[in-house]
Amino acid sequence: MKSVYEELKREAYEANMQIPLQHLALYTWGNVSAFDAERCVFAIKPSGVPYENLCTDDMVVVDVEGNVVEGKLRPSSDTPTHAVLYKEFAVEKKISMGGIIHTHSTYAVSWAQALREVPLFGTTHADHIQTDVPCTPYLSPNAVKKDYEKETGRLIVRYFERNGINPAEVNMVLVGGHGPFCWGETASKSVYNAAVLEEICKMALNTLTINPCAKELPSYIVQKHYERKHGPNAYYGQKK
After folding, report:
1. What one-character-per-residue DSSP string does 13-46 give?
2. Cα 194 to Cα 191: distance, rounded to the nearest angstrom
3. What is the rounded CA–CA span in Å between residue 80 and residue 64?
4. Are the beta carbons of 51 and 30 closer than 8 angstroms?
5. 5 noted as active-site residue
6. Cβ contact 175:181 at 8 Å
7. Whole-model pTM above 0.90?
8. CA within 20 to 30 Å of 38's CA: 94, 175, 186, 224, which one?
9. Residues in CB range of 210: below 8 A, 6 or more apart
């Protein structure tokens, strides 16, 4: 009998297969989930299974409380983080959020390990978000002991709230000492955003290597480039 979550699982599977293709992780160092807003469930990669061994049926369906709804395998160890972000951002704040990705891509992780936000140096960055890429502090010892993955999600949510960051506009974050989480309107879009983040991190590092005193892009250029792709007067690409 065909699962009612077949399409959701297929979306998650196809997005996860993009991780190695986009060079976002070695081995099994990454996962993508696909969210069904109507059912408040998401499909996610099973824990520790190599990408080349995955199939659609391996995807595990989980609710926003972290309970497995369907699946024979253990879901990703990062599942509680995904659950918190969907619950707080998609359900509570009504953000259009159809997918989340977490990877250990080299350049993004390097900035996370340095506990550094990624400065907005150029138009590539500005085309996607109008701010520095945020980086959270380390989790506290108590949070790590309590429920590490769930507390990682809560850390991201608290950091956005305390710093007035809108998750509908800033769809990427670095978790201090850990690595990146990105989200998008679909699972495939979250992968796209992770690839963009990795390239932004690489460009920023190169910029500081060439000029350690490099200045951030002026706000009027940031605004122009962001509005070319976003908002009511966007003109980049073709009309739908």
Report:
1. HHHHHHHHHTT--STT-EEEEEEETTTTEEEEPB
2. 5
3. 8
4. no
5. no
6. yes
7. yes
8. 175
9. none
